[in-house]
Amino acid sequence: MTDVIAPRPRMLTGDRPTGPLHLGHLVGSLQNRVRLQHDYECFFIIADLHMLTTKSTPEDIARSDTNARGLVLDALSAGIEPEHATFYLQSAIPEIHEIAGRFQSLVTVARLERLPALKDMARDAQVEMSFALLGYPVLQSADILSVRAHAVPVGKDNFAFVEVTREIARRFNARYGEVFPVPTIVPSETPVLIGTDGKAKMSKSLGNAINLADGPSEVRKKVMGMYTDPNRIRPDVPGRVEGNPVFNYLDAFGTDTATIDELKSRYRAGSVGDVEVKRYLVEVLEAVLSPMRERRERFSESGFVDRLIVEGTERVREEALATVREMKKAMGLTGAFNRIRRSAGRHRDKVLQ
Ligand code: TRP
């Protein structure tokens, strides 16, 4: 007798191709994805249509294929195994729009207008709330439900969007019959990484990020230029550890807690200089980044990433097509045209008098 292997549940998550990922993404989402990758069949969307909701100039669009490849390489360098992952480009799958279109009837404008996360996005991107941006969670629901994902690993800023997805799935199933699983949110623990400038959050647009693709000299330069404690004008002045990005990073990436604790007490006591702590941080970061660079190097070979994206996109297109067919069948949406077409066939040879 052969064992029947139950299919693994599906997980879907992804990013907009707006630029290189940084250390904040590594602790915030990539490490979580790497941890989960063997428990699920994994789909990673390169959400270039979502990018258009806030960034839609020809320049933004022109950069998106380099950025798309970069996202995949960042994920592979962090430890996502290509044989376990399906990466795909959202804009190459028109069925996602078709699915999103049907979902538009299942959510109210008022519900979307109430989402603080969307208002934050508009404010951060300095754009007005467009129709597309208001529909961001509906489009995301189409991503998630087009592959009928069971689990969606995301950070806090996306919880409300996936809540909308859950409502849409429930409402669709209740109105037309069971087609979709109601996906679960898998929260990524987000130890917030502050910027190299001490600002609240590491962010590409603030220019305070250490990118996963940065080389050793760039990392060293960024660390040596990091904000520490502005009141500390000499190494013998007691310093603040809290809110100090250098220690924030040591806590996030260091493994030798004894050494880190010792550096903290010496820093507080004014018996260690910024430079020494920063040198140690460079070492700690290199221990994380250098194996990642090796994987990046290996996967950068001859079109590997491009082939991965193309194969993944073709595969998901099939999935999305099957979902559209099933949705239409459940909704009875194919019936009308089929009936009219059959009737047209019967009257083919008649001409108007
Ligand atoms: N909204 C996600 C972000 O903040 C990107 C995204 C688009 C996504 N579609 C998704 C995440 C589907 C999870 C599932 O960039």
Bound molecules: tryptophan
* Helix share bin: 40-55%
Strand order of the largest sheet: 1-2-3
Low-confidence runs: none
Count of DSSP-assigned helices:
15
Radius of gyration equals: 24 Å
Largest sheet: 3 strands, parallel
SSE class: mainly alpha
Looking at how many chains there are and whether they match, the oligomeric state comes to single chain
Structure, described:
The longest helix is centred in the C-terminal third of the chain and has 28 residues, at 304-331. This protein is mainly alpha-helical. The mean pLDDT is 95. 55% of the residues lie in helices and 7% in strands. Helix 9 links the parallel strand 4 (151-154) and strand 5 (184-187). Residues 12-16, 45, 47, 50, 140, 143-144, 152, 154, 158, 161 line the site of tryptophan.
Topology (SSEs and partners):
Layout: E1 10-15, H1 23-36, E2 41-46, H2 48-51, H3 58-78, E3 85-89, H4 95-103, H5 109-113, H6 116-125, H7 131-134, H8 136-146, E4 151-154, H9 159-176, E5 184-187, H10 216-224, H11 245-253, H12 257-269, H13 274-299, H14 304-331, H15 335-346
Parallel strand pairs: 1-2, 2-3, 4-5
The chain binds tryptophan.
Task: Summarize the model shown.
Helix content is 55%, strand content 7%. It contains 15 helices and five strands. Helix 8 crosses helix 9 (159-176), helix 10 (216-224) packs antiparallel against helix 13 and helix 11 packs across helix 13 (274-299).
Task: List the main descriptive attributes of the protein structure presented here.
two-stranded parallel sheet, 5 strands, 15 helices, elongated, three-stranded parallel β-sheet, mainly alpha, 353 residues, binds tryptophan
